[in-house]
Design brief:
Layout: H1 2-8, H2 13-20, H3 28-38, H4 49-61, E1 66-69, H5 77-87, E2 92-95, H6 98-109, E3 113-114, E4 123-124, H7 130-146, H8 151-162, E5 165-170, E6 188-191, H9 196-203, H10 205-209, E7 211-216, E8 221-223, E9 233-239
Parallel strand pairs: 1-2, 5-9
Antiparallel strand pairs: 3-4, 5-6, 7-8, 7-9
C-alpha cells in the first residue's frame, strides 16, 4: 500500500521513506545510501519481500543497538546467553534480570534495604518478614553469582557508550545547591563534545543569549564559551541579567 501510494503520487522514495522513519531519525541520505548499496530500483513496487527485508536490515544497522537478554535468573539462562553472543557477535548483548532489579528497587523504596542501582550488593536496614527475607536471600544469591542485575549496566552502556552522552551538573562555586538548598538535584545529559555555551543554552535560552563566562566549580576556575565539557563536570553559568 505504501509503495503504491509513493509511486502513484510520483513521490521520491528516499524522501517518503525518510519521512516515514523520521521518528528513528533516519535521513534521506541514509535511505539513498542503503538503496544504492543493495542496488535496488527507485520504484518500491518492484521490490520483492527479500529485498524489502534486506533494506530493513541495512537501515537498522545504521542505528546503535543493544540486546537486553532478560531473565538471567532462570535456570539455564547463562548457557543461552553464551549461545546468543556466539550467534550474534556483531551485537552488544548484556544479560540481565529485570525481576531482580525490580525487587531491589521496591525493597529500597519501602526502606527495607539500602541499594544503589548497579551495585553488586545491598544492606538490610528494615525489619523483614519471612517472605521478604526469603526473596532477598534469592536476590543476594543472584548478585553473588552475576555481580549485578544487569539493568543499570545496559542503561549506562546505551547512554554513555553507544549514544556517547556525558553527565554535567549545574552548580555554584561556594555551594553546590539550588535556591532551595538542595544539593545538585539535577544533572543533564549532554552529547560528548558539547561546550560550556551549549550547556548554558540547555539550562535556559537567556543563559546562552547573555553568556559571559562559565565556572568549572570543581577546580574553581573560569572557562570560556568554547570549553569542552567533561563527564561529571560541575558548571556554573555567568550571564548578563
Amino acid at each position: 500500500k505504501f509503495a503504491r501510494k509513493v509511486q502513484g503520487e510520483n513521490q521520491d522514495i528516499k524522501k517518503a521513506l525518510a519521512k516515514q522513519l523520521s521518528g528513528l531519525k533516519v535521513t534521506e541520505e541514509n535511505v539513498e545510501a542503503c538503496i544504492k548499496k543493495l542496488k535496488l530500483s527507485h520504484k518500491p513496487t518492484e521490490w520483492n519481500d527479500n529485498e524489502l527485508k534486506q533494506l530493513s536490515s541495512e537501515l537498522r544497522k545504521l542505528k546503535p543497538m543493544i540486546i537486553a537478554a532478560n531473565k538471567l535468573d532462570v535456570e539455564g539462562a547463562l548457557l543461552n546467553l553464551d549461545k546468543l553472543k556466539k550467534k550474534f557477535p556483531e551485537y552488544k548483548i548484556i544479560g540481565c534480570s529485570s525481576e531482580i532489579e525490580l525487587a531491589l528497587r521496591e525493597a529500597a523504596k519501602k526502606n527495607l534495604i539500602e541499594y544503589v542501582p548497579g551495585d553488586s550488593d545491598f544492606k538490610i536496614k528494615g525489619k523483614l518478614n519471612d517472605k521478604q527475607k526469603k526473596g532477598l536471600d534469592f536476590v543476594k544469591k543472584y548478585l553473588k553469582e552475576y555481580d549485578k542485575s544487569g539493568v543499570q549496566e545496559i542503561l549506562n552502556t546505551l547512554v554513555f557508550e553507544m549514544l556517547d552522552y556525558i553527565v554535567v551538573y549545574p552548580g555554584g562555586v561556594n555551594k553546590l545547591e539550588d535556591k532551595n538548598g538542595n544539593v545538585l538535584p539535577d544533572c543533564f545529559l549532554m552529547k560528548n563534545g558539547s561546550t560550556a555555551l551549549d550547556f548554558a543554552y540547555r539550562l535556559h535560552t537567556d543563559f546562552g543569549d547573555n553568556f559571559i563566562k562559565a565556572m568549572d566549580v570543581k577546580n574553581k576556575r573560569p572557562v570560556g564559551k568554547d570549553y569542552r565539557l567533561k563527564h561529571r563536570d560541575v558548571i556554573e553559568i555567568m550571564y548578563k541579567k
